[in-house]
Design goal:
Elements: H1 3-8, H2 29-43, E1 48-51, H3 58-68, E2 74-79, H4 86-96, H5 105-122, E3 126-131, H6 139-142, E4 160-165, H7 168-173, H8 179-182, E5 187-190, H9 196-209, H10 219-229, H11 233-249, H12 257-264
Parallel strand pairs: 1-4, 1-5, 2-3, 3-4
Helix pairs in contact: 2-3, 4-5, 9-10, 10-11, 10-12, 11-12
């Protein structure tokens, strides 16, 4: 958002950008509960599954989780590129953990094990690996992940795996080839789109944090914003920002339903 827009609307910062401090992340009751459950899971050195539609707020929940995990007690790594064969996947995992990649998957697996054991023994830090967009992972690679969840005869958790993806990920994990992995996952968190009330609360929260001192959206404007985005946070950000741009272009301080509908056609959501 340009300086012209923030100045015109009396804002001190961009209200719907991605540059959000973890302290200012918007957490409704459902997302707060999701973070609490995930925190309890990894604290007990277990594995978790997080699913939801694109833009529903999975990354927000994961950022909040990372913020609440002590950096001295946990070593958290994030891997987004999972559409790889098992050799390249283990190579990427080695790099994420700061381990020199080896020649074979078996050697890399041993190196990952040693690093996690070292982290726990020397630094008292439990390793948490967040795997994003796991529904895209090849079955041949996913079928190897249960070995990471199984250590010392399945009695000593080596690390916590947090599997993140679209709703179909759960169905993929239920396939026979992955049943050994599924039975090792302790917690499932399913995020849903917000209600109209939550959409309004989210927009007001973001605007207030950006310095808005008055309402910028009318009630019917917020209702249309929810209707057109389905309560998905990422889509709300896109349409709300487009609405602010159009409001400044038309020199209006209050965004109603007609303006939101016109702003919709300035976005890929139309």
């Amino acid at each position: 958002m340009s300086d012209r827009i923030t100045e015109a609307l009396g804002l001190k910062s961009r209200p719907f950008g991605k540059e959000i401090s973890p302290d200012l992340l918007w957490m409704d009751n459902g997302r707060s509960e999701a973070v609490d459950r995930l925190l309890d899971t990894v604290t007990h050195r277990q594995h978790a599954l997080v699913t939801g539609e694109p833009g529903v707020g999975k990354t927000t929940v994961l950022r909040a989780l990372r913020h609440r995990l002590s950096p001295t007690g946990f070593n958290v790594v994030y891997i987004a590129h999972v559409t790889l064969g098992k050799r390249d996947f283990f190579r990427q995992m080695c790099i994420a953990l700061g381990v020199a990649p080896k020649a074979t998957p078996a050697a890399m697996f041993e190196a990952i094990q040693r690093e996690c054991v070292h982290s726990a023994a020397e630094r008292r830090a439990h390793t948490v690996v967040v795997l994003d967009e796991v529904q895209l992972m090849p079955d041949s690679t996913m079928s190897q992940l249960h070995v990471l969840a199984n250590f010392e005869w399945d009695s000593d958790p080596l690390l916590s795996l947090v599997f993140v993806g679209l709703p179909e990920l759960h169905g993929k994990l239920r396939m026979g080839i992955h049943r050994s992995l599924l039975t090792r996952i302790h917690t499932k968190v399913e995020l849903s789109p917000g209600t109209p009330e939550l959409t309004a609360a989210y927009v007001r929260h973001r605007l207030t944090d950006a310095g808005a001192r008055t309402e910028l959206f009318t009630g019917d404007g917020l209702a249309v914003l929810h209707e057109e985005t389905g309560g998905l946070l990422r889509s709300i950000d896109v349409l709300a920002q487009a609405s602010l741009r159009l409001a400044v272009a038309e020199d209006t301080k209050l965004i109603d339903r007609d303006l939101v509908r016109r702003a919709l056609h300035h976005t890929p959501l139309a």
